[in-house]
Amino acid sequence: MDQIQHKFIKVEGLNLHIAEIGTGPNVVVFLHGFPEIWYSWRHQMVAVANAGFRAIAPDCRGYGLSDPPAEPEKPSFKDTVNDILAILDHLGLTKVFLAGTDFGALSAYLFAIQYPERVSGVITTGVPCFPPGPLDFNIGLPEGFYVSRFQQPGRAEADFGRLEAKTVVRNIYILFSRSEVPIASENQEVMDLVDASTPLPPWFTEEDLAAYGALYEKSGFQTALQIPYRSFRDAFNIPESKVKAPALLIVDDKDYILKFPGMDDYIRSGKTKKYVPKLETVHLPEGTHFVQEQLSEEVNQLILNFLNKHE
Question: Does Hydrolase show up as a keyword for this record (predicted)?
């Protein structure tokens, strides 16, 4: 971990934080999800660097050490795609592999669709590529569905604001590591779904939590709620949704996302290949939402196998 270097790149007036390790000619750009930062890919960054690749992991705008936008209620997935492009251009990288988890997977797919000449391959965990059109994960789920709650301006801010930033991250890591969809009752907030005595997942240490908590104390959660939750709907409002590059989808079989209405069938039926023709799908039976941290060795090997096949 000490070998990982840190720098900042100016994009649209914002200082975006980049973590980097390795010097190989083939580059992997790792894209985090919510409530993660670059650190969530730490195990994979070291693994690919040791195998001769260069690993780069940015903090999304408003996350971690990256500056928040002046108007944190306005960023969209278009901004995440533009930020990836700006980072590649700044670093002089003509073509890269993209690895994304959670909303980072959506950003990876969207970038690969819009800039196919810049992408050697796409690796995602948990989240498939979606058809063009509005995304609505709320259909068929009750009002207390965590996505619905996080989409309501002010509600999640008030819920999170009762707690220290570190406790918010702790609760989300515990909630999202379960196999059940987080749903609050009518008179309950999402943070109340976790008891203070519940331990962290065994693969996520107090040291890891402290690394997240310190950064969220600085950034807050406003931009993190905007991207992804308040900009999901329009993410795939694009004319075409086809990834031309080779792709690997690592499915976490105990990820609560598979219980979103229609999600499990969409992945298992092979419908995803309509939009990602060169897709390879691998299932990890014990995998949960943060699989790259939970089962880091297995994920490392799957990524390296894919990279070596397509470099």
Answer: yes
Distance, first Cα to last Cα, the chain: 25
CA angle at 148 for the pair 276 and 14, rounded to the nearest 5°: 70
In this prediction, residue 206 carries a pLDDT of: 95
Overall pTM > 0.90:
yes
The separation between CA 229 and the C-alpha centre of its own chain, rounded to angstroms, equals 12
Sequence-separated (6 or more) residues with CB below 8 Å from residue 284: 250, 251, 252, 253, 291, 295, 298, 299
Residue numbers annotated as active site: 102, 229, 289
Give just the sign of the alpha carbon dihedral 19, 21, 23, 26.
negative
Instruction: Please give, one letter per residue, the 3-state secondary structure of 67-111.
Output: CCCCCCCCCCHHHHHHHHHHHHHHHCCCCEEEEEECHHHHHHHHH
- What is the distance between the alpha carbons of residues 28 and 104, in angstroms, rounded to a whole number? 13
Q: Which amino acid is at 148?
A: S
Phi and psi at residue 244, to the nearest 5°: -85, -20
Using DSSP, state whether 20 is helix, strand or coil: strand
Q: Which residue has the tokens 């609760």?
A: 171
Binned average pLDDT, 10 residues per bin, the chain of 311 residues: 90 96 95 96 97 97 94 93 98 98 97 97 96 87 96 95 95 97 96 96 95 87 95 87 96 97 94 96 98 98 97 86
Instruction: Give residue 1's pLDDT.
Output: 66
Diameter of the chain measured on Cα atoms = 54
Provide Rg for the chain, Cα atoms. Answer: 18
